[in-house]
Amino acid sequence: METPTNAVPPSILKPSARSIATSKWPNDPSTIDKYNWLLHVMYGRGEYDRIQQFIRVQPQTNPYMTYVQALVNRQEGRIAEALDLFQKSVVENPTLVNIKQVAKSLALLGRYRVAIDAYKEALTRTTNDWEVFHNLGLCYMQLREFNEAKQYFLQALQVSEIQEASYIALGKVLLLEGERDEAEAIFERGARRNPESPTLFTHIGLLAFERAHYTKAFECFGTALTFCPTHIPAIMAACQVIQKHGDADVALSKYRIIYGRKPECAQVWNNIGMCFFSKKKFVAAVSCLKRANYLAPFELYVLYNLALVHLYLQQNASAAIFLQSAIRINRKHAPSYALLGVALSKLNDSDNAERAYAYSLKLDSADPMTLLNYGIFQANTGVSPAKINSTMQQFHRCYAERAAAAANPRDIDASMLDVATKLGYPAPPPAPPSDLPTEKLSFPSGLPPPPAFPFSTNSNRPADDSASNVPPPPPPSASSTLSPSDSTKDDDPTKQSPPDEPEVKTKIYDANRHKLRRMKQEPT
Amino acid sequence: MTSNKRDKSASRQYQEISGNENESDQTRPTTAAANDAKSKWLAAHNDFVAGINTVGTCMELVDLFAEGSVNLVVADFGNILLMPKLQAKLKVFKSFSLLKENNLSDLPCALVACYTDNLQPRIPALAVASGSAVFLFKSLRPYYKFVLPQIEIAQVEKDVWHKAREGNIDIQAMHDVLNDIHRAGTVPLTPRSLTFLQMAKSNEAYQFVEHYKNVELKRQSCVTCMKKLNKNSADEDGLNCLVIGTEDQHIYIVEAEAFTILATMTCPATPSFLEVSGVYDVEFRILVTCRNGYVYLFRRGNQTPRNAIYLNSIAVGLERFGKNIIVGCMDSSLHCYTTKGKRYWKHILPAPITAMCQIDYRPKGFQAVAVALANNEIHLYKDKFLVDVIQVEENIYAMKFGKLGREDATLVMVTKNGGLIIKILKRTATFEENDTLHGPPKEQQVKIDVPKRTKLYVDQTLREKEQAEMMYRIFQQDLIRLKLLTGKEFLKSVQAGLNPVAKTKTEAIRINAEVHGLGPRFKLTVKLQNT
């Protein structure tokens, strides 16, 4: 078919009459950019397949098509191919946009040094591009060169003050360096600029939590959840607080949200298990904890909690085995040894129990609960009263220290003193609750609330992915458990004292105060 | 011409095939929210085989014949993948049925209904932008074609092609000269020269030059977006100008009566969406989202933007309410800014945004922005509150709200597969000014599926309570025995030369075994290497 090479379409009425070039080139090359807008729109909508088909049917490619093709490749995860195309674009046309894309692809491939070079090249073409500064900071953060990282994040924040991502990244760098105060200041500055950012508020809350400012922490988590009721890190953190003062039902209802979104999160299963535990649904608790253990077999606290629950259920052999697994994961975890001591003494293996207690005390000699359990163990195994006395005196000393250090007088479980009194070693006169009535102990009825501890582990992960933002599981309550039958023997503590007590190290909250606050926070 | 015909029939066949596919789509159970009583919308029309393929900027709701009944006008792409044989059409609908259609020469990029004269009755003309031209249709007949002004070409480049026509320059020399201009970067090259520079083989380049040397050298930009602006009065049917954004980073304001360029503005990047307000002769503002992820604000009398807002992502929609700008971004976020660039709020939506449109229902004073999402929902935001969610059957790729026929409030939607959905806002509908998503998220109602325990487990627990000590002893013994056995076997395998990395002195063969996973399922990789 002949083709008159006319530059303009012959008629807008008869497109079919438009000449078709015999060659592979269109008649009018001046308008090869005419579909760029459509590519841009399709890219924005995420129609990646259609873009690729569209580019394939084009008789001719233009630079923008290469660029979009590269973007599509990167969006679909073929980063190396994307990098090739972007590099081709840079060779053709070294603009800022192209250089930035090359640098970004390099960073995604983990080639941070080269990426930094590319970004620095980009900096020669612009001085106020937030993205360049921020990504430079991220690259240096990955290379653990924190001074440069901080410097670039600060520059990024100078360029654009509202960028949530830069505040979070800068805060993380500061946390990695151990500068908690500065990190908190940065997060708070960011939160002032982004008053609706759930991530920033969760970070502030976690920092407050670490300092045991539970009121502030809970308020921060509440704020985060107001703006995003499904923000998983905030839910996890808020539930820690809720669980900590023993409101398992509320925590459970919140955990359902995470369960619905991330049903394979071991941490959630652990916390759900501990909720059931405090609701005395032991079979459910064991089931959930076992699922957590299945999902994360190397998670220390899951094993520890499993041991705790089994000990409570008088399944001492299982408890001992789980504790051995826990110890195998962390050989310096004093509470595990202490609990192993309890389990072994119940299994009539007093030699090893003695060694477990001794090792636990060697690792942490200031844990009143371990000391108390040790004292009871010594009393049960007929050790000379002088030794028991020294143990119990140390217990009272540590207990008094803890009680003095606790901000809230109910942060420490006073029932430990009752048990000590029953054992025949009442607290020295200055200790306030020593004169409590010694009739019936209340501990078997009231289970210790599954605990929530400040999590230190998540601060040393620089990762950005949401999965790692899930706070680690709460270190479980260091409470050992009391079998109900033990309470009957309480009358004669010297002869056959309660072998192993439910000691509660976790802090108990003033329930009313918290209820009030919770009312405020709960969406109705 | 015969080949042409065959092509046509082929494409018709294709259409039929795709039509059948669409029909099977239609048979899906459609339990739209429209059916339940709580919905604020009536399903007026559902046609999943309408075969319309377009974007939001190519739809208009306008009273095309000044008869008091509003028509839907769509500039349809046809199938963009049948590229050289586009079947782009200008379609006019009257009350859900196709009234008339006109062929278009090229893929349309924007459609605007504008008033180009002061005659009575007020009959609007249709301006269709495609390629580098704007075609004006009056009474659905082609009336005028406005071509964007040509862009300056470097003199050296002109000379090179002039020499090429006369045949006194060779390919290599051409390449060198053009490459120099390109590297210098002062004046951009024409697309023709750029294509030439990309050619690797001299044979191909020679053919290219032969093909083009007699064609006039041109550098012409293309339209990327177009909107209208009132010329001298704020009346709805006042005389209009066209605001045209182009690929070469310009914004032109063109008078629609005689097509003279009234103003030219320079944009720092290629514009993608426009939003225009005001009156040209008095004061006007143009908001532009650009491909570099910025929103720029232009005002009357300024060549360059006054304000710039940095978005973290590419914009997929732009709407303006008074002094508020609402931008939907590719990272499924919806932002609200003031025209000064301060951010009011930001929402992260549950799915990527596919289309956006403004809802302005004057009789009730209801203003909102509708955001179509990739999860087949349309979210209506009034200020920062989500006031309604409409469920639809397919992804929506284009939307328009306004009058249609004699209805005051209709939402016209075009789906991904070419369907046309029209919904009418119920007259009784009221939108409460708080979040419909207020309250606990729906996941909170899900029951946690606690793994069940078997009777055997319970029996074992009971047994353990009674005989814990014995069980523990046996377990310990067995464990130690197992360890001993493992150790012995390991020793045996080391002695026999079967350890994971096995080396024998005589044979040059290495075996390396790796176990991945903890079991019960695991993967065993054995590498056998001849060194």
Molecular structure report:
The complex is a heterodimer of chains A (524) and B (531). Chain A is mostly helical and 524 residues long. Chain A contains 25 helices and no strands. The termini of chain A are far apart. In chain B, 21% of the residues lie in helices and 39% in strands. Chain B has 6 helices and 31 strands. In chain B, the strands form 8 sheets. Chain B has a 4-stranded antiparallel beta sheet, with no helix packed on it. Chain B starts with a helix and ends with a strand. Classes of the chains: A mainly alpha (524), B alpha+beta (531). At the A-B interface, helix 1, helix 2, helix 14, helix 16 and helix 18 of A face helix 1, helix 4, helix 5, strand 10 and strand 21 of B. Chain A: This is Bardet-Biedl syndrome 4.
Would you kindly provide a brief summary of this structure?
Chain A is mostly helical. Chain A contains 25 helices and no strands.
How is the topology of this model organized?
The complex is a heterodimer of chains A (524) and B (531).
Chain A: H1 36-45, H2 48-57, H3 63-75, H4 79-92, H5 96-108, H6 112-123, H7 130-142, H8 146-159, H9 164-176, H10 180-193, H11 198-210, H12 214-227, H13 232-244, H14 248-261, H15 266-278, H16 282-295, H17 300-312, H18 316-329, H19 334-346, H20 350-363, H21 368-380, H22 385-405, H23 415-423, H24 493-496, H25 511-521
Helix pairs in contact in A: 1-3, 2-3, 3-4, 4-5, 5-6, 6-7, 7-8, 7-9, 8-9, 9-10, 10-11, 11-12, 12-13, 13-14, 14-15, 15-16, 15-17, 16-17, 17-18, 18-19, 19-20, 19-21, 20-21, 21-22, 21-23
Chain B: H1 2-26, E1 41-47, E2 59-62, E3 71-76, E4 89-94, E5 97-103, E6 110-114, E7 125-130, E8 133-138, E9 141-147, H2 155-166, H3 171-184, H4 191-198, H5 202-212, E10 223-230, E11 240-246, E12 250-255, E13 261-266, E14 271-279, E15 283-290, E16 294-299, E17 307-310, E18 315-321, E19 324-329, E20 333-338, E21 343-348, E22 353-361, E23 366-373, E24 377-382, E25 385-391, E26 396-404, E27 407-415, E28 420-425, H6 455-495, E29 501-503, E30 509-516, E31 523-530
Antiparallel strand pairs in B: 1-28, 2-3, 3-4, 4-5, 6-7, 7-8, 8-9, 10-11, 11-12, 12-13, 14-15, 15-16, 16-17, 18-19, 19-20, 20-21, 22-23, 23-24, 24-25, 26-27, 27-28, 29-30, 30-31
Helix pairs in contact in B: 2-3, 3-4
Region (Disordered) (chain B): 1-33
InterPro entries (chain B): BBS1, BBS1_N, GAE_BBS1, WD40/YVTN_repeat-like_dom_sf, WD40_repeat_dom_sf
Domain Bardet-Biedl syndrome 1 protein GAE (chain B): 509-531
